[in-house]
Amino acid sequence: MTYDRMLLRFGEVGLKGKNRAFFIRALAANVRRALMPLGKGFRVTTPYGRIFVDLPSGCNIDEVALALAKVFGLVSFSPVVQTELTMEAIALAARQELQAEGLPLTFKVAARRSLKTFPLDSMEINRELGGILLESFPELKVDLHNPQRVVNVEVRPEGAYVFSRVFPSSGGLPVGVTGKGVLLLSGGIDSPVAGWMAMKRGISLEAVYFDTPPFTSPRALAKVEKLAQILAQWAPVNLHVVNFTPVQQNLMEHVPEDLTITIMRRFMFRVAEELAHREKALAIITGENVGQVASQTLESLRTINEVVYLPVLRPVVALDKVEIMDLAKKIGTYSTSIEPHQDCCSLFVPAHPKTRPTSAQAEEAEREMDIPGLVAQAIKGTVSKRIVSEGHSGLL
Fold this sequence. Notes:
Blueprint: E1 5-10, H1 20-35, E2 43-45, E3 51-54, H2 61-68, E4 74-83, H3 87-100, E5 106-113, H4 122-136, E6 141-142, E7 149-156, E8 159-163, E9 167-168, E10 179-184, H5 190-200, E11 203-211, H6 218-231, E12 237-243, H7 245-254, H8 260-279, E13 283-285, H9 298-305, E14 312-313, H10 321-331, H11 334-337, H12 344-347, H13 359-365, H14 371-380, E15 383-389, E16 392-395
């Protein structure tokens, strides 16, 4: 079966009122970007608030479907055949569509007519086309409630579209429409899932990884880069690798052991906020989950949070571990996250961390540390990469 176009459907984007055109333009731009690796010839248009992709001759529909399935903002899409505005042409395309994946046992016709000058209305198209298909395939039966195949017909000014295949996509909002966020990306299970969930709400990611050589190995950094590449399948990710070793050494010299994880997180937040200012990001995003570890009690979160002014988003905060793991498996990060290469958060966890640290305790622990100098040093030693998709990256 040869298809002319893809018809793309969006969900929330259609509810944006006066801002709808802005969201559709952003979604169309993201669709173009997703299709670029597949070659030339794809043309994305937005007539009458719909989105279509003109397909080049010989393109692989399955490859196109895989690319479009990872575009946030799309809820589904269908390969369509465009025909002339006659029932004969529509019927020919409908017969071919019914046979494309093997003839079903039951079917129904679902027509929509936006071209009011077409001689038949939607119900009349349903009845006439259904009768033609029953004559062409006597073994078929009509089932209006639970058909094996739905033959859809859209009658529009530029032609009629016939389709039956519907592919699901990612939903949510187009990445970038709500601004940038700085994601604290570790090598664990939670933070990549948090980043993916933030992207689904239209946030583009400035990911930051806190590298502590020689305490952590190059394989730990490679693991994080791999996670960023997986996330980049949905949208490009800027990865900022911070040399956190000087901060870590100061922590070991000046901070009581039971407070090291609290003070470490406070420094991470400070560095993340400085990066956010530099990259014009509007929020910090973390994979923190209430009650999961010692640094994620409400008291710890409050004490860590107070060193920054930007909002801190915690997309997985109310999920349990099994739910987070299921999402990680769904998006493809789980197998990488469980590789045995530790980041600094897991490597330097004290034997008995303080679970209810106060602001006064944290400030006293930091009293002999040069906070502005250490943050500036960490920012200066940051190396940034743009991660476009797996295997494609470059220094920013």
